[in-house]
Amino acid sequence: MSEHSRRHEHEHFHYSEEDVQREVTELEGKSATAARIFDLRRIIGGLFVLYGVIVTITGITDSQAEIDKAQGININLWTGIGMLLLGIFFLAWLKLRPTPPPLPPEGVPEEEHRP
To answer: How many domains does the chain have?
Structure first.
């Protein structure tokens, strides 16, 4: 393909500044929504709570022989409780300090962005 035909091809795809700004605003909104959904505090907190429940149940059902292996300490029970507390901390932190909503783009009135 010659240089002239490539230039001619690009001339057909001219976007206005308004089109570009609208596209950027849409992508920023999608990115902010994804950031709120996949907040690391939610993932870490959820996994710690899930594994904390499993390890705590294991600790509650441990036999005396398994406890004696850990020098008389029910390590599964204490580790499970610690994991539960850490997971609850992360989820409470997410609830008390949620990810801020995206800022409206500059130059666009506030009323246009309200659902």
So the answer is: 1
